[in-house]
Amino acid sequence: MESRFTLTDNEIGARFAKRFGTASLAVIQSPLEKVTQELVSLRVSQINGCGWCVDIHTKELAAAGEPAVRIHLVAAWREATVFTEAEQAALALAEEGTRIADAAPGVSDETWARVRKHYDDDRIAALVALVAQMNAANRLAVIVHQKGGAYEPGMFG
């Protein structure tokens, strides 16, 4: 499967990508811990089958010094002992916010209560924005068949 299209090689695509990247600064510059941002981004990308984004977020976690066992267990976080309660709440929100069509209520009240227990309003806003933006980023990359494997940590600053 070859890449279909390079969005940034097109004027409209490049303008969109620039604004999309600028919007992500709200999350990047938020008080939400960088490791939590990467764990959530990785889990959303795994669910959506986005090889490009899985590549990015596994490598960013490794570059940040995260142990391999935590990176490898993100896909099975419920059956792992290596994540904090706060990280588990964020991962539950990521899954339920990504699999909206799979469950009538979307994000359950139980998951929302877990998130509220561990995060303040600024971090919750960042989590919600991150889940939404990662889902959009995954869809962009999957639609054009953007391949994983070539990403270098820090590539996007």
TrEMBL record:
InterPro entries xref list: AhpD-like, AhpD_core, CMD-like
A matching Pfam family: CMD
Name the UniProt record assigns to this protein: Carboxymuconolactone decarboxylase-like domain-containing protein
Molecular functions per Gene Ontology: peroxiredoxin activity
Residue ranges of domain Carboxymuconolactone decarboxylase-like in the record: 18-96
Native species: Amycolatopsis vancoresmycina DSM 44592
